[in-house]
Amino acid sequence: MPFVPTGLEGLLVFEPRVFEDARGYFFEAYNQSVFNQAGVHDRFIQDNQSYSTYGVIRGLHYQLQPHAQCKLVRVLEGTILDVAVDMRKNAATYGTVFTIELSTANKKQLLIPHGFAHGFSVLSQAATVLYKCDALYNKESEGGVIYNDPDLAIDWKIPEKDVIISDKDLLLPSFKNAINNF
Ligand SMILES: Cc1cn([C@H]2C[C@H](O)[C@@H](COP(=O)(O)OP(=O)(O)O[C@H]3O[C@@H](C)C(=O)[C@@H](O)[C@H]3O)O2)c(=O)[nH]c1=O
């Protein structure tokens, strides 16, 4: 199975089989049947793509129910540190931070179920990130957690002086405050 468990229920690393030959490589970036066979039945209805330069941190973001989004994240160019935080109050892994490098080279994808906050930092000179979502963008239901929350203490692998982050993301609340409204 091309899915690797992470220890957090529903959070999976997808490692596609890559066919290499003299021309280059080929792989199925997404095949609904393969996901279904692994018990993943999310129906993706929106694709997002963003480009960011080194040091950019986007996140941590989520949409509240009933607009919660499952995300399947992959990198088209560069290397990112992808970060998922378990916000599910009744989960054994509530409050756990999971991080993984996703890159053009390793072709790994992260499947993030409902109930997680998501963000990433750009470790390469630039990165183009594509992620599929199972629910549409809904501005009113957007929420998030500040990237440097002291309880989560995430190592984004970017020196503080190099961090580039949106004004909007700098206003995000702490994990403790965000979880009250989650
Ligand atoms: C997320 C999103 C944004 N937008 C618009 C709103 C805004 O004007 C502009 C940029 O939005 P943001 O600053 O929120 O983009 P960004 O900070 O890249 O937001 C994304 O971050 C990553 C980590 C995620 O997990 C995503 O779900 C999403 O929240 O794009 C859409 O039209 N559709 C969308 O689905």
Rg is 16 Å
Number of helices: 3
Overall body shape: globular
For this entry, what is the oligomeric state of its chains?
Answer: single chain
Uncertain stretches: none
CATH class: Mainly Beta
- In percent, how much strand structure appears in the residues? 35-45%
Q: Mean pLDDT, rounded to whole units?
A: 97
Tell me the name of the CATH homologous superfamily.
Jelly Rolls
End-to-end Cα distance, whole Å, is 33 Å
Polypeptide structure, described:
This protein has 182 residues and is mainly beta. The chain has one domain (3-180): Sandwich (Jelly Rolls), CATH 2.60.120.10. Helix content is 9%, strand content 39%. The strands form 3 sheets. A 6-stranded antiparallel sheet has the order 1-2-10-7-12-5, with no helix packed on it. A 5-stranded antiparallel sheet has the order 9-8-11-6-13, with no helix packed on it. The longest helix has 6 residues, at 32-37. The chain is globular and about 50 Å long. The chain starts with a strand and ends with a helix. The model has no long low-confidence stretch (mean pLDDT 97). The site of dtdp-4-keto-L-rhamnose (TDO) has 12 residues, from strand 5, strand 6 and strand 11.
